[in-house]
Amino acid sequence: MTTREQRQTPQQLFNDAVLRLVAAERRVDPYVRPLFDAVLRPPVQALTQAALQARLRHRRPRTPVALAQEQPLPGEAEATAEIIEVMSRFLRHTYKPGTAQRAGNTKTYGVVKASLQVHGGLPPRLRQGLFAHPSTYPAWVRFAGPGPLSPPDLDDNGILSIGVKVVGVPGPKLLDDEKHTQDFTGISAPTFTTPNVVENVKLQRRIGDGTPLLYFLGPKDSHLADLVMQGLYARTHSSPLETAYWSCASYLLGEGQAMQYRFVPRDRRRGRLPRHPPDDYLRDALARTLHRREVFFDLLVQPQTDPVRMPIEDASVVWPERLSRPVRVATLRIERQELDPAEQRARADGLSVNPWHALPEHRPLGNQNRARREVYIHLSRLRQEMNGTPHVEPGADTFFG
After folding, report:
1. Cβ–Cβ < 8 Å for 138, 168
2. What pairs with residue 259 in β-bridges?
3. What are the backbone dihedrals phi and psi of residue 143, each rounded to the nearest 5 degrees, phi first?
4. What is the pLDDT of residues 127-151, one digit of tens each?
């Protein structure tokens, strides 16, 4: 037994042993995942979501909740402050000046040029904010891994992320550091890792202790349903361009109406994992595909129709499609392009994606989003100060416009 293992607690040893099993499973995941997703994922997700819906009914508020109505959580402000403190300390202790990366959604696979075409003929209730009129906007899209570190892709690529910055959007914005952008964010799972920001603090503490699995499996405060939901969608990806991305959190869709959204790839083909994947094989796959052809994602919006079964303050619950069918409102077109490594690094360093870069008609809703406003602003500024790379609002044609 090594000196490091002698210093580890039993809880840390258990945590590391399970993670080694997960790492081994990633090698065989591409061969079993298609069958698993087709046969087992739907019924397992249905059972898990039924349990979460039962929890919602048990905790139903005494006073009626309206559509798009927020309900701040007790301890929310304190939880947000602690997350900022923990993640800031992580950045300062992990990185030297000039090398800092993001504390979440850390590893950048690419920051690519795109356009978002808003469709005409939408139902009247969807013609709000950015979707009010058919138009085409320039956009920049960042594809990234989970974090908080940047190991080889095969070791940490279960849940991917997307950040879409739409450029040239007129009208007032909720943050004053960018004047002409509307940001969309998402991950490759329909639910977030934690149901709310107060629970997220518990996870951050476990990460600091080296025992994140005990957050999900703790006997006195289990979050097993959240672990199951993440596991259903955590897979060995072959490309960032081949998975759907969900907002998980909620947003306004005009006055008195809430929505969630998702980006769904139009091409359902899946590439093959290399026999011996290099450390950055997802970055290579992104560059290789865009060298050959353009890629399309459909942007689907799902309006909230039931404030209880489609909650705003609980990000662990999938909004049932039987209550509200997602509607395609726009197309994200990623054009053919060459991804120069030096330019990619410069784009990633200067880019700040924040869901509060938004029109008032699309104001972020829920405790996770309220926390994101402060967390993202603080961590983005800290990272850019450490690196000496000031915040950049991209132009329409060139990133440093």
Report:
1. yes
2. 251, 303
3. -105, 135
4. 999 999 999 999 999 999 988 889 8
Can you give the length of the chain in residues?
401
The answer to whether the CB of 83 falls within 8 A of the CB of 204 is: yes
Task: Specify the number of domains making up the chain.
Answer: 1
3-state secondary structure of 202: helix
Sign of CA dihedral 281, 287, 290, 296: positive
Residue 343 lies in a domain: yes
First to last CA, the chain: 56
**CATH at 147:** 2.40.180.10
Name the token pair of 358. Answer: 């938004």
Whether pTM exceeds 0.85: yes
| 127 backbone φψ class: left, alpha, beta (φ>0; ψ -120 to 50) | beta
Sort 183 into a burial class: Cβ within 10 Å, 0-12 / 13-18 / 19+. buried
Q: What is the pLDDT of residues 99-128, one digit of tens each?
A: 999 988 999 999 999 999 999 999 999 999
**Are the beta carbons of 284 and 292 closer than 8 angstroms?**
no
DSSP of 311-370: -SS-TTSPPPTTTS--EEEEEEEE------HHHHHHHHHH----TTSS-GGG-EESHHHH
Domain that holds residue 335: 72-203+233-269+278-387
For every residue of 72-108, DSSP letters joined together read PPTTHHHHHHHHHHHHHHHHHHH--TT----SSS-SE
Among 279, 315, 41, which residue's Cα sits nearest to residue 157?
279
pLDDT of residue 144: 97
- Strand (E) or helix (H) holding 28: helix 10-39
Residue 64: inside a domain, yes or no?
no
Give φ, ψ of 46 to 5 degrees: -60, -45
Q: Is residue 289 included in any domain, yes or no?
A: yes
Do the domain assignments include residue 394? Answer: no
